[in-house]
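Raw record, unedited: Similar to Lysine-specific demethylase 4D acc. no. Q6B0I6
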Amino acid sequence: MGMVNKDGAKPRSKKDQDRMAEACWQTKRKEAIEKLIFSRLNEDDARCDYDGSWHFETPLPGWLNAAREVQEDGALGTFLVRPSYEDFRDRFAEMLDVLEPFGMRLGALKVKVPEKWLAKPIPYTELLPKKQESPEEDTPEAGPARTKKRGRKTKKSAPRKKPVRSPPYNLSDASGALTPPSSSDVSRSPSTAPDKPDPKVFIMTQHLPIHENSTHRYAPIYEVISKRQEPVLLSTFPHELTSESITHRIPEDQVESRGRSWRDVAHNNPGGAVYYSSDNDASPMLRSVLGLGNPKFKELPGNEMDLALPRVEGIHTPYLYLGNPYTMFALHQEDYCALSLNYHHVGAPKVWRITSPLDFVLVEELVKRTCDTPPELKACSQHVRHESLFISSGAFQIHGVRSILVRQQQGEMVVTWPLAYHQGWNEGGNVCEAIAYGSTAWRNCFVEATDMVYRTCGRRCQHRGMGIGIELEFGSGDEESAAKRVKTETIETEWKEEESEIPMTHDGDTTMELERAKMEVGSDSF
């Protein structure tokens, strides 16, 4: 006789069994997060108004020099902290511990990075391969030494001038701001300086139609459609970065109205596609050509992520992002629920809509109700990221999700906390940089207790090209010491020629191939 349950029903199919197992895991996950994270928050330290604004009873310490921001709608926003150079350098991990009760309620805080901390831009001429001179040989007769050259002897003529391409960017000035190419750069002779290199960057087009299941007229939900293309030369990327970019403003309702005008348009929208360049490896040469200083993410103390193996680009190493007006990043949280450090180098503000980590369950349920995704994919722990949505602030309010609006200016670093879903857009041309960060509390909860709290994409998602399984492991003793040595050795890496093949990830697949799948459904791009 076949197996039956206690109600006498027929045995469930394999899919039904998988769904039940996933539902049980989700329940255990929520209970574990409540026990390991939220229970540590003192309810007397903060209270929330009916409109979702947080009020904190305990002030931040004076050495953080913190100020509360006010959003465009008049509601209280996040905090901007401005530590001294010495405190930023020596007490970074302590700073994050102090900010954790605020970050686990607000979702993110801003840090003004001291100018002294940034490493100055490196001239690209210092990164070019050194030319090797041929050995000199003496002639039989007395006379000046000559350099021996290969090939037949030809009549000496004036050197042929190569066409000089206008460089896409100039090196930054003392203030760290980018300046457009000048006539002197264009007319500079190759005899005085080598041509500026033209590294490759990724490019994709983006569209923002209203989601087909969005029914609320005043609180719509949009779909961020990103199409990955081949890498292109930086000089050909249509980057709208000018000296006036810093003054550009695109309010949230203007972003949403642009989405309304694109309804029922998924490709070749008549308003014109917007171009975004994301997930670019922050190589020394790309930094130099862009004229960027180095925020030295890898030198910040207390990052437990640096002890995790294998090494993954975009998690252990920083990525650069080149934004244009209306370019967006879809709703997501970081890989492995880690913290993220997001530095704004130059250009127009980047605007973030960030949800409270306390409401992560409400966000996930809202997305599940919106999308007609097969049940087996809705059970994925990365379901929100796969759907690639941009949810209006009104939709968040209707469903009881508390969120804040954060406008990030150049020189500021946005720190997002675990379980804080976030989305946003660029108000104009800009350049930003991001990397993952793991605190001790993060490691204890999301890695050591990973079976209860966090799981990467399953086989179904990976077979559909919707996600990449990233299993991080921490060693002990000698293994962690080896990981620390790897970190030290990679703080200052040598530049490799841009003509080399596309960087490889730890499992041998190209970064471009893996990221293409992620970007089509909304990646961790910020």
